[in-house]
């Protein structure tokens, strides 16, 4: 997807247009320091590219923009739960239509805020009142903040993730550090494992690292850079790549798509809904990821 070739629906400012891709509206940011895209469907960052560099974010060439299926790639928002612990898997906000709350821009960068509140559709799936805001701050780095607030009269419990797909030059060459050595291996039925503190991939992984450092680094020699992922408000980091066999079973990913992506996710993990983070009425929680290159 070439954001610059998409038709303009409306112009919000000197730096922000609303463009259309199939059934999905995307906020296209064109700034002297960067270009970026944020889908209103799913509140989904689909691109962040500092001027003169490769995109930091990977999107599948086979992603479906029908405003029905979740988008494959980018930074999907998993909330109010992460994983298949309830239906739909990864929650419902990545299938919801978000609203633009505000945008701010200057010569240093752009800030966009999207919002979502409960409605009759969400109440059927999850019978609670909430307010969720997504802040996307773009300058030399990409900072994404998921701010969730309990607007109900009773407590509720959640889990979630910022499911970042990183764009890498060659999955065989990358090295990941900072994720720690303790993880739950979802490919081994949730077995608790201990592994090396430097990760080089030779096969698919789906791991929940339970003691990550505040900053995880992905060395990407093909693109001659290091990606740093700084997470806050999380209790774990999920690392995922489906490898060749897995990619063949994902309809909205090409068979070779796994070669250029690596998921490093800021995650509030819970094995069941009741084990998540509980917010009392009026309380909020922020889940944050900041992605940069050096």
Automatic annotation (TrEMBL):
Instruction: List the catalytic activities from the record.
Output: alpha-D-glucose 6-phosphate = beta-D-glucose 6-phosphate
The EC number on file is 5.1.3.15
Q: What is the main EC category here?
A: isomerase
Q: State if Isomerase is listed as a keyword.
A: yes
Instruction: State the source organism's domain of life.
Output: Bacteria
| Sorted UniProt keywords | Isomerase
A Pfam family annotated for this UniProt entry: Aldose_epim
Database matches in PANTHER family: APOSPORY-ASSOCIATED PROTEIN C-RELATED (PTHR11122), GLUCOSE-6-PHOSPHATE 1-EPIMERASE (PTHR11122:SF13)
Protein family membership: Belongs to the glucose-6-phosphate 1-epimerase family.
What protein does this entry describe? Putative glucose-6-phosphate 1-epimerase
